[in-house]
């Protein structure tokens, strides 16, 4: 920036020197232009600089694996298979409708020939003419009726098929996402995932329906009409269809380019929606830092890229369709020209020309329709691939396997044995290197240590959100890897974390999340024990009060107490409290601590806390530092120990 200002200053001095012999007005004008350009340059550089910094933030949102998002025919078949009946019915109706469409021009031609005969005939008796026309007119009318019935049928069948397939895709993807490893969510943003669940499925569904209904119909129609053309005039037909292979060849070449463009455009749209999603979920932070303008620009930039890619795609598809139309219209014109010649030479009847023209027009319409379908197929194919991309991932942690320890023989003895661990998203950063610690059954064990040393990570490993790189975590001597993870998380461990996140439903339903089959009385009892009752009873809607998105309509302490009530209701043998009382004021903390003390009795409890009052009451304290548990003992033992890190932490108010 400084260099830009300096160069502006330099150019100003040069200008002054050059302008000495010039008139003053000219000098002022030149200076004004120079000043304006400098200002413009500075503003542009500032803007570019800012945009570059902003784009960096988006880099982590942008999905890295877009090229894997393509769909195989096998995967498509797997989607169709459960609804094959509907698919078959739709296909049959679409083809039958196409067959009728092929027959209609021929009938129309017969009718025209009769009309021409009538015009030429000397018989002025109207009823005779109508008798002659009637069977053909009735035949044509029945075809129109059957055709519309078939259209209704195949559109209905396709709607049913499309909706069921979309539901299957959505449900499979959502189910898959629910069971994917935590590492996956560390590297994928919510906005991106919801774009796949919603807009990509929608895109696939519309495109699939279009391809089956119109694609099949138009292909059948084109082939059938080519047959009719042959029947009417083989010579003219050969001229007419000579261009079709060329169109197909050019089409497939353009198609492969458009597919790549479509994939990139869809990925960019997903990035844009991830940016907006992130902004909308962090609205309070945006407000607090007055970042509305920056967020708006960031979104606009991503949106603009998506727009530009979608426009390029649209232009490509449009170009292809335009060129196809030009070819096809040329065909119709040449049919008229050639047909008139043949009529003049007496080789073709006017009715046959009419049939030929209508058939050629049907082919023309079908082919131009096909070029639209082609564009939509490209979009649908890539959208389907993007949806299925995550369904192909196999999670490291398997929910099905593993044993459960029977309730009566479960003690709750936890051990970390030589555990080495790095987060999958940051493999180079070792959080633990041969960590060893024991959480004896029925005891309250506290973890303390400087921030970022891995206390919460211990709870993540205990919950089996991640797997250790080496070493093992055991429960009653059994490696967690051999235990059923659903049982472990659902029935053994109750976690109350630093930042409890609630669902946007009522207080009651949020508490019941701990045990969905709990009675109202049990929910109220848990709420009373966690001192939720005190503040909820002051709300006009009581336990039916809606807590807002992620519990935004409650205070931090209130959220925390609901989370505690949820854990109390769950009643797990092992309780993990990760700064569970950190958001409470000292008065509320005292109340909640009392409640927690009641729940903690007879259970294995792992507490992460910064408050001395919480830590000192633990039967065993571990100090986590330098990738290990460096000290352990009771508060008194650790305070008495010479050179104790624990004592330093207490004295430095790291433990208050
Ligand atoms: N999901 C994650 N992916 C990658 N690294 C992570 C992840 N979560 C935590 N970390 C890193 O692991 C290290 C340990 O983090 P952890 O949250 O366990 O620390 P902590 O001791 O609980 O800190 P605090 O007391 O501040 O809560 C930190 O360096 C942190 O940056």
Automatic annotation (TrEMBL):
Gene3D superfamilies assigned to the protein according to its UniProt record, in alphabetical order: ABC transporter type 1, transmembrane domain, P-loop containing nucleotide triphosphate hydrolases
UniProt entry keywords in alphabetical sequence: ATP-binding, Ion transport, Membrane, Mitochondrion, Mitochondrion inner membrane, Nucleotide-binding, Potassium, Potassium transport, Transit peptide, Transmembrane, Transmembrane helix, Transport
Locations listed in the record: Mitochondrion inner membrane
SUPFAM superfamilies: ABC transporter transmembrane region (SSF90123), P-loop containing nucleoside triphosphate hydrolases (SSF52540)
GO BP: oligopeptide export from mitochondrion; potassium ion transport
Keyword presence, Glycosyltransferase: no
A single cellular component GO annotation: mitochondrial inner membrane
InterPro entries according to UniProt: AAA+_ATPase, ABC1_TM_dom, ABC1_TM_sf, ABC_transporter-like_ATP-bd, ABC_transporter-like_CS, P-loop_NTPase, Type_1_exporter
Assigned protein family: Belongs to the ABC transporter superfamily. ABCB family. Multidrug resistance exporter (TC 3.A.1.201) subfamily.
Entry-linked Pfam families: ABC_membrane, ABC_tran
PROSITE patterns: ABC_TM1F, ABC_TRANSPORTER_1, ABC_TRANSPORTER_2
Domain ABC transporter: 414-651
GO molecular function: ABC-type oligopeptide transporter activity; ATP binding; ATP hydrolysis activity
TM region positions: 83-104, 141-161, 215-232, 238-261, 313-337
Membrane-related topology note: Multi-pass membrane protein
Entries under CDD domains matching the protein: ABC_6TM_ABCB8_like, ABC_MTABC3_MDL1_MDL2
Name recorded for this polypeptide: Mitochondrial potassium channel ATP-binding subunit
Main location: mitochondrion
Positions of the ABC transmembrane type-1 domain: 88-379
Domain of life of the organism encoding this protein: Eukaryota
């Amino acid at each position: 920036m400084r260099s830009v200002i300096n160069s502006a200053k330099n150019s100003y001095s040069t200008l002054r020197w050059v302008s000495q012999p010039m008139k003053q007005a000219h000098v002022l004008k030149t200076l004004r232009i120079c000043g304006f350009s400098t200002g413009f340059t500075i503003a542009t550089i500032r803007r570019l600089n800012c945009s570059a910094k902003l784009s960096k933030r988006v880099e982590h949102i942008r999905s890295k694996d877009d090229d894997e998002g393509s769909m195989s025919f096998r995967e498509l078949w797997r989607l169709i298979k459960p609804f094959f009946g509907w698919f078959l019915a739709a296909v049959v109706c679409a083809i039958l409708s196409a067959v009728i469409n092929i027959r209609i021009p021929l009938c129309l031609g017969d009718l025209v020939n009769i009309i021409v005969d009538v015009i030429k005939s000397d018989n002025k008796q109207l009823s005779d003419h109508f008798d002659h026309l009637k069977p053909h007119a009735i035949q044509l009318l029945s075809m129109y009726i059957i055709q519309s019935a078939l259209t209704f049928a195949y559109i209905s069948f396709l709607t049913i098929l499309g909706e069921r397939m979309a539901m299957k895709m959505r449900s499979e993807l959502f189910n898959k996402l629910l069971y994917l490893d935590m590492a996956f969510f560390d590297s994928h943003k919510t906005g991106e995932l919801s774009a796949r669940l919603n807009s990509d499925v929608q895109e696939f569904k519309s495109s699939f329906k279009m391809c089956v209904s119109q694609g099949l119909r138009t292909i059948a129609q084109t082939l059938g009409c080519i047959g009719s053309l042959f029947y009417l005039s083989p010579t003219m037909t050969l001229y007419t269809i000579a261009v079709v292979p060329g169109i197909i060849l050019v089409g497939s070449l353009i198609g492969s380019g458009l597919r790549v463009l479509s994939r990139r455009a869809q990925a960019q749209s997903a990035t844009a929606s991830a940016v907006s999603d992130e902004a909308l979920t962090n609205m309070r932070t945006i407000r607090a830092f007055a970042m509305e303008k920056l967020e708006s620009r960031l979104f606009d930039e991503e949106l603009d890229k998506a727009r530009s890619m979608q426009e390029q795609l649209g232009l490509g598809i449009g170009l292809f369709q335009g060129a196809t139309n030009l070819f096809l219209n040329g065909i119709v014109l040449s049919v008229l020209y050639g047909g008139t010649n043949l009529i003049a030479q007496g080789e073709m009847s006017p009715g046959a020309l009419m049939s030929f023209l209508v058939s050629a027009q049907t082919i023309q319409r079908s082919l131009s329709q096909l070029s639209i379908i082609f564009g939509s197929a490209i979009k649908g194919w890539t959208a389907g691939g993007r949806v299925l991309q995550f369904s192909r991932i196999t999670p490291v942690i398997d929910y099905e396997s593993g044993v459960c320890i029977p309730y009566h023989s479960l003690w709750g003895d936890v051990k970390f044995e030589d555990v080495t661990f790095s987060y999958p998203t940051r493999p180079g950063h070792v959080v633990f290197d041969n960590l060893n610690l024991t959480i004896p059954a029925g005891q309250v064990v506290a973890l303390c240590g400087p921030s970022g040393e891995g206390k919460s990570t211990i709870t993540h490993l205990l919950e089996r959100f991640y797997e250790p790189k080496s070493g093992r975590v055991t429960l009653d001597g059994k490696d967690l890897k051999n235990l059923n993870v659903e049982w472990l998380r659902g029935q053994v461990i109750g976690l109350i974390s630093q930042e409890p996140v609630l669902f946007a439903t009522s207080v009651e339903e949020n508490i019941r999340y701990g045990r969905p089959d709990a009675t109202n009385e049990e929910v109220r009892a848990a709420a009373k024990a966690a001192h939720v009752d005190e503040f909820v009873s002051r709300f006009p809607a009581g336990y039916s009060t809606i807590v807002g998105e992620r519990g935004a309509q409650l205070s931090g302490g209130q959220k925390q107490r609901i989370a505690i009530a949820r854990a109390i209701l769950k009643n797990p043998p092992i309780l993990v409290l990760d700064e569970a009382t950190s958001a409470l004021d000292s008065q509320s903390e005292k109340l909640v601590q009392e409640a927690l003390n009641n729940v903690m009795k007879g259970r294995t409890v792992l507490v992460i806390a910064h408050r001395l009052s919480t830590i000192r009451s633990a039967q065993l304290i571990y100090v986590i530092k330098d990738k290990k548990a460096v000290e352990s003992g009771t508060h008194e033992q650790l305070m008495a120990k010479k050179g104790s890190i624990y004592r330093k932490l207490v004295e430095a108010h790291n433990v208050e």
